[in-house]
Amino acid sequence: MTKVREVDADAEVLPPGSKAGATLSNDPFVALVARLMDDVFTIPGTKIRFGLDPIIGLLPGLGGLASAFISLGLIAVSARQRVPKVVLARMGLNVLLNAALEALPVLGDALSIFFRSNARNYELLQRHAGTARRASPGDWLFVGGLLAAVAVLVIAFFAALLYGASLLFKGWS
User: Fold this and answer.
1) Overall pTM surpassing 0.90 (yes/no)
2) Are 37 and 71 in contact (CB under 8 A)?
3) What is the pLDDT of residues 49-66, one digit of tens each?
4) Which of the residues 96, 123, 155, 170 has an alpha carbon 20 to 30 A from that of 18?
5) How far apart are the two ends of the chain, measured CA to CA in Å?
6) Contacting residues for 109 by C-beta, under 8 A, at least 6 apart
7) Cβ within 8 Å of residue 43, ≥6 positions away
């Protein structure tokens, strides 16, 4: 006669595309900020969604800069949630591209509606949170350098834009 042992087992259902053992980010603050910046409004009669990002970007000079710094804050939160460095670099590139778009007056803000860097970065956070090993001092140096580099490039974009505008106004005087 064969003896059968009863075994208790816990099952975990993972979302499609996630890795076993990966911890998805359920940070409500990041989700709220990403939604406010990219998805909170709908253009009437369309399915086109946008947020505060292109609206803030309409403020001359400081709007796009403020928007970029909010996005950089989300990258810092992502780093604390152990997102791999390569994904953080991709997030930084998304912010940089969005800032470059917003450097173009009005047209850039319209294009920003479709690029939606915060929503893209939140999706990356959702997919990759907790998948990196514990952060070392070198990792934090990388993240700090990445944030500083993106911040410097964003400031340089807007400084060049203001310089170009001042040259334009001098020519009209």
Assistant:
1) no
2) yes
3) 999 998 988 887 788 888
4) 96
5) 102
6) 54, 55, 57, 58, 101, 102
7) 49, 50
Instruction: State both tokens at 49.
Output: 């969604």
Query: Rg for the chain (alpha carbons), in Å?
Result: 21
Cβ-contact 23, 129 below 8 angstroms: yes
Closest by CA to 158, choosing from 71, 64, 69, is 64
CB 33 within 8 A of CB 71: no
Q: Are 101 and 115 a contacting pair, CB within 8 Å?
A: yes
Nearest to 117 by CA among 95, 90, 149, 101: 95
3-state secondary structure 45-90: CCCCEECHHHHHHCCCCCHHHHHHHHHHHHHHHHHHCCCCHHHHHH
Backbone angles phi, psi at 53, to 5 degrees: -55, -55
